[in-house]
Design brief:
Elements: H1 13-18, E1 33-39, E2 45-51, H2 53-57, E3 61-65, E4 96-97, E5 103-109, H3 112-121, E6 123-128, H4 135-138, E7 161-169, H5 172-177, E8 181-189, E9 201-206, E10 212-216, H6 221-232, E11 239-242, H7 259-269, E12 273-276, H8 279-285, E13 288-289, E14 292-300, E15 306-318, H9 324-335, E16 343-352, E17 358-359, H10 366-384, H11 388-395, H12 404-408, H13 425-436, H14 438-442, E18 450-460, E19 470-477, E20 483-487, H15 496-508, E21 515-518, H16 536-563, E22 569-571, E23 574-576, E24 582-584, H17 585-594, E25 602-608, E26 616-626, E27 631-642, H18 649-669, E28 698-703, H19 726-738, H20 749-759
Parallel strand pairs: 1-12, 10-11, 13-17, 15-16, 20-21, 27-28
Antiparallel strand pairs: 1-5, 2-4, 2-6, 3-5, 7-16, 8-14, 9-10, 9-12, 14-15, 18-26, 19-20, 19-25, 22-23, 23-24, 26-27
Helix pairs in contact: 6-7, 9-10, 10-19, 15-16, 16-17, 18-19
This protein binds dioxosulfidomolybdenum(VI) ion.
Dioxosulfidomolybdenum(VI) ion is lined by residues 219, 251, 254, 360-362, 364, 532-533.
């Protein structure tokens, strides 16, 4: 292959580096109205009265919206396929508020300052209601968050259960009873936030044909179009959504977060509107990773082979349930797609609480699965006195295995049968073992103030949502043998435009700089479900490959017509006939435009897959615990990934290197506590500590050689996989260092210190 597997420069790299006007907010709109949201200061209340007269009277205020403007429609803000799998439990504005940060009103004004001042002039009379912050309490308390009729898809509103999940294969209870060993553990993962550099920003205006244009920082332009059309009651054809360059999404932008608000302003006033979340709003009023309290029971026979896996999930949805069902489904699917066990069972409840809203965040339920699973595997290994790597190798799924959970558990509906066609977990473990110095470090006796340890964990993810995700592509040829590639696939900073260009270039036999990529604009590009579930390379990439092949077929046909030789073949960038006659791609296109056999050479294709091949990863963490302060320093992370054929090694490495700090943040530094009133405390990046460059350990990032037969050129996904294994690898390393098992993230020094006190 000429282009696949090469470090070609990013197609958007130069524009980004030059600081060109590429992002949502980089255009200037005339007479734009600035939109600000009034967020609820209380966690649960009925709005008895809301007086906006003073705000409305303020000079420069053009519109004020309250719940009285939006009385009927329930929808979900989740940017998912249609019909959406989760509950429809939300209004644009409601007369009840359910968490500190819920939307009470929004205003549009000539300047940001006036908009902010107007918010302070809105008088709201709240009737405070009792609150629930605890997940277990949510199911038994006498408080109901969503009692209104008209909301749909809520599993059990009376017990605040937004979503529920249960599935069993085999006989888990029987299998556990007759197992030689049974291990059980309960673990939890916390609220964490994506902290994308670019916050949520949306701009709207009416175009010259009186159509609504939405330029927004999103992962899901086509879902934005569909949902805004629905909630505003206007046809899809009246809306154009433009996705410019995006400064990171990580799931946070798989959401219709504020597009509907600016749309309402523009539709009402006819004027352009703009909204930008502050960092504080990102932290308390956007979306966070759902905290989950997870209990695993693992049964093993005398040969340390798994007999059963029993999984119980309690998921904290916060006040509303976008992604409630599907995040929990992914927790179950990914946990049960790693190790082969004849009996498996999952029971899950996603519960409402008066806290910020859980949403999509890289890994999408999988980090919540692998921290518990891989911690318990480590406990099991030490209890059964077997090397943790050996225990994993004995139990992982192998090539050719059927993955039974895939059939019974899809995302919000039944799944599809799945056979594992490629897995290199064993190779990842082997490489990581060597690169991390496992055998040397593992057995070292530790004493003194600073104690080192090493831990390992493995993880899987998916490549798109089987039977749901769909991508499509359009390629047209130009007379210099360049090609416009138009895709609905949504590059959100991942580099997917470049990967797609490489795929097209490989098929067409031209250099990558001959491919001009445009993504994505609902007027200009064909449909794509969007950038989530690690789907772009695998799903949209397959669409691009097919479209390029169709385009190439047309080049050949056209070349044969022009040469008058039905046997002619493509050689490089020529079509060559048997008599030594040949015609270049450039001439084929130019003649086709202007003189002979006139037509546009182009190709289109769509792609959907019932397969979702898992990429796999093994992460080794070396840590140093300070037994005086209880702090953990990560010294080195070795991350080895099987993502099938790597399309662009440098970009793939970038994905891994970006996922690790997010995982380490959840493990060690990010912390979102709430006061007794449900108010988030750490509302800036000074106090909500994301992992930064100076915190980073030495990273060793490698890929295991692999080929996925169902993927474009053998590729699987690489976007989400690196975030899953670092947390359990670090926790296992901490155990190795000081003998303390941390079951609740983040690892807090006071908890670790107390544990060390007991262990010593
Ligand atoms: S968490 Mo991603 O938007 O599937």
């Amino acid at each position: 292959m000429k282009v696949i597997g090469q470090d070609t420069p990013r197609v958007d790299g130069e524009a980004l580096v030059r600081g060109n006007s590429v992002f949502a907010d980089d255009i200037k709109l005339n007479n734009v109205l600035h939109v600000k949201i009034l967020h609820s200061p209380v966690a649960h209340a009925n709005i008895l009265n809301i007086d906006v007269s003073k705000a409305q009277a303020l000079e420069g205020v053009e519109a004020v919206f309250t719940h009285k403007d939006f009385t009927t429609h329930y929808y979900t803000t989740a940017g998912q396929g249609y019909p959406e799998p989760g509950p429809r439990d939300m209004r644009i504005l409601d007369s009840t508020v359910r968490f500190v940060g819920d939307r009470v009103a929004f205003v549009a004004a000539k300047t940001l300052e006036i908009a902010e001042q107007a918010l302070s002039l809105i008088e709201v009379e709240y009737e405070e209601l009792p609150t629930i912050f605890d997940m277990e309490e949510a199911m038994t308390a006498d408080i109901v968050l969503h009692s209104e009729s008209g909301k749909t898809g809520i599993h059990d509103a009376a017990h605040n259960v937004g979503a529920h999940l249960e599935a069993e294969l085999g006989h888990v209870d029987k299998a556990l009873e007759s197992s030689k060993y049974v291990f059980e553990g309960t673990y939890s993962t916390p609220f964490v936030q994506m902290a994308s550099i670019e916050p949520h920003i949306s701009l709207t205006w009416m175009d010259e044909n009186n159509r609504l244009v939405i330029r927004t920082s999103t992962q899901v332009p086509f879902h934005v179009r569909r949902i805004v059309a629905e909630v505003m009651g206007i046809p899809v054809g009246r809306i154009r959504v433009i996705k410019p360059r995006i400064g990171g999404g990580f799931g946070g932008k798989q959401e219709i977060l504020n597009e509907e608000l600016v749309a309402a302003v523009t539709l009402k006033t006819g004027k352009p509107a703009r909204i930008e979340y502050t960092r504080a709003e990102e932290l308390f009023a956007a979306r966070l990773r759902h905290p989950e309290l997870v209990t695993f029971r693992l049964g093993f026979d005398k040969n340390q082979i798994l007999t059963a896996i029993d999984l119980n999930i309690l998921e904290n949805c916060g006040a509303y349930g976008p992604h409630a069902l599907t995040v929990m489904s992914v927790t179950a699917q990914k946990a049960l797609s790693m190790y082969k066990a004849p009996s498996i069972r999952v029971n899950g409840d996603g519960v409402y609480t008066n806290l910020p809203i859980g949403g999509a965040y890289r890994g999408y339920g999988a980090p919540q699965a692998f921290f518990p699973l891989e911690s318990l595997m480590d406990e099991a290994a030490s209890a059964m006195n077997i090397d943790p790597i050996e225990l994993r190798l004995k139990n992982i799924f192998k090539v050719g295995d059927d993955i039974p959970i895939a059939k019974i558990l899809g995302e919000g509906r039944e799944g599809f049968p799945m056979v594992l066609y490629s897995t290199e977990v064993a190779a990842c473990l082997k490489q990581g073992r060597e690169l991390s110095g496992w055998d040397k470090l593992r057995g070292q006796k530790q004493n003194g103030r600073y104690r080192r340890g090493i831990g390992v964990a493995v993880a899987g993810q998916g490549s798109g949502i089987p039977g749901i995700d769909m991508g499509s592509a359009f390629i047209k040829m130009n007379e210099d043998a360049s090609f416009n590639l138009q895709v609905g696939a949504t590059d959100i900073g991942t580099g997917s435009d470049t990967a797609l260009a490489q795929i097209a270039a490989e098929v067409l036999g031209v250099p990558v700089d001959k491919i001009i990529v445009y993504s994505s604009d609902t007027d200009m590009t064909p449909f794509d479900t969007g950038a989530y579930a690690s789907s772009t390379t695998y799903i949209s990439g397959s669409a691009v490959k097919k479209a390029a092949e169709n385009c190439k077929t047309m080049i050949l046909e056209q070349g044969r017509l022009l040469l008058d030789d039905t046997e002619a073949v493509i050689e490089g960038t020529f079509v060559s006939g048997g008599v030594g006659d040949k015609i270049s791609f450039e001439d084929i296109c130019t003649k086709s435009f202007y003189t002979d056999e006139q037509k546009q050479i182009m190709g289109t294709a769509s792609h959907m897959s019932y397969d979702s091949p898992p990429p796999f990863n093994a992460t080794f963490a070396e840590v140093e615990v300070d037994t005086l302060t209880g702090t953990v320093r990560v010294i080195k992370i070795v991350s080895v990934t099987d993502a099938g054929q790597i399309i662009n090694p440098k970009m793939a490495e970038g994905q891994i290197e970006g996922g690790i700090p997010q995982a380490l943040g959840m493990t060690l530094s990010e912390f979102m506590p709430f006061d007794e009133k449900g108010r988030a405390i750490n509302l800036d990046l000074n106090s909500y500590h994301i992992y930064t460059a100076k915190d980073m350990p030495e990273l060793v990032v490698r890929f295991a050689e692999s080929h996925e037969p169902t993927g474009p050129y053998g590729a699987k996904a690489v976007a989400e996989i690196p975030i899953n294994a670092p947390a359990p690898a670090v926790a296992n390393a901490v155990y190795n260092a000081v003998g303390v098992r941390i079951k609740h993230l983040p690892i807090r020094p006071e908890v670790l210190l107390a544990g060390i006190g007991k262990a010593d």
